[in-house]
Amino acid sequence: LVCISSITNTTNIHIGAHRVPQASCRDCELEEGSSSKDTLETFCRSDFVVKLRLTRLKYSPASLAQFSLAAKLDVLKHGPLLGGQLRSCIELWLERDATCVHNMTRKHPRGGTFLVTGTVQGEHLVVSKAYAWQRGDKNLMAATRRWKSHKCRH
Prior knowledge:
Layout: E1 12-15, E2 18-21, H1 36-45, E3 48-56, E4 67-69, E5 74-77, H2 83-96, H3 98-105, E6 111-121, E7 124-132, H4 138-147
Antiparallel strand pairs: 1-2, 3-4, 3-5, 3-6, 6-7
């Protein structure tokens, strides 16, 4: 397994005019659902919060991507990006951040539904937390239900 980290300001190596992320195998380990209050605070600190469904692709030698994004995205928070921009940024992240996607889907080899949060850095999304969307995770479900009426403290 080759580790490809999320692109951040602190982990870049410059090769010519291209930024190449440094390796990190710890990106996007699935979070355990903490209390709904803690999850809401994570949402507040994030630029974006999106519930998405990933489906395993048949092998494609032309791309690092092993999963495709379902047609419907449930955007809880889009931050500085518009709806269409968010989808294209998520598709780019899915294609480029193989380690993060691998770590998220390790226990879900066929794909699944995930809630991801993170920041927007330029044209790139940096996923900071990922949760497996499971009906039994009452705290995560409660946090997403309460999000629309939640007021963040800054």
